[in-house]
Recover the amino acids of this structure.
């Protein structure tokens, strides 16, 4: 029975169902966008932009990210079965997905993402996905930004009321009709100089910049246990 259920979850009809469910569910959010104009002005100038977000917080941004489809955005997603579901939803939202992670197919996906940023000049990256550890910026984003000359834009999402899953990232699911704020941080330019020391320093700088936006505790919510 469980095997049959898993098979259904990864079918095309189910992915379509999940896509429309997320869109309808997200429409209940009282959404507010903060500081978006700055990076959009950078994009208008012809410079590549790479939005970075924690794995914990990407669900709250899905509805608004659909509005970026006109920019031909790119997103790197793992080759796992769960990644198949996420990629299906992202593709239907107008995002081009490059499949791979640090554990599988990462090199090819990374090269594809760099080419995508050079060509279309816009994309997003989940910093600590797909398996964590929570709040740890992986080195791939630095390589992507430096080799594509992309401007890195931190992004944070917060919900007035939310559930947090009992998962490695404490995945956040805003409650229906909750106030949800999407905030874009100041743009960061990661210059390419070829030194390993500078590479690690930039990774640590991005991690230090974004860690305050990670939600570790929220007494107003209860955790949802995963099966």
């Amino acid at each position: 029975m469980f095997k049959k259920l898993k098979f259904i979850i990864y079918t095309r009809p189910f992915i379509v169902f999940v896509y429309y469910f997320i869109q309808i569910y997200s429409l209940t959010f009282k959404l507010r966008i903060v500081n978006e104009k700055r990076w959009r002005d950078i994009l208008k100038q012809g410079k590549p932009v790479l939005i970075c977000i924690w794995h914990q917080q990407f669900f709250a941004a899905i509805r608004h990210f659909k509005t970026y489809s006109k920019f031909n955005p790119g997103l790197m997603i793992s080759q796992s079965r769960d990644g198949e579901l996420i990629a299906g939803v992202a593709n239907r939202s107008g995002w081009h997905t490059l499949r791979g992670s640090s554990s599988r197919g990462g090199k090819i996906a990374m090269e594809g993402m760099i080419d995508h940023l050079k060509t279309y000049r816009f994309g997003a990256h989940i910093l600590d996905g797909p398996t964590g550890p929570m709040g740890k910026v992986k080195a791939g984003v630095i390589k992507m930004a430096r080799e594509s000359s992309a401007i890195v834009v931190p992004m944070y999402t917060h919900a007035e009321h939310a559930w947090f899953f009992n998962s490695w990232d404490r995945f956040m699911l805003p409650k229906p009709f909750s106030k949800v704020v999407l905030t874009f941080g100041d743009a960061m330019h990661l210059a390419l100089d070829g030194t390993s020391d500078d590479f690690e320093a930039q990774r640590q700088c991005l991690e230090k910049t974004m860690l305050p936006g990670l939600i570790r505790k929220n007494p107003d919510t209860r955790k949802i246990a995963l099966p």
Notes: Residues 135 and 157 are 14 Å apart (CA to CA). The first strand starts at residue 30 and ends at 34. The two ends are 15 Å apart (CA to CA).
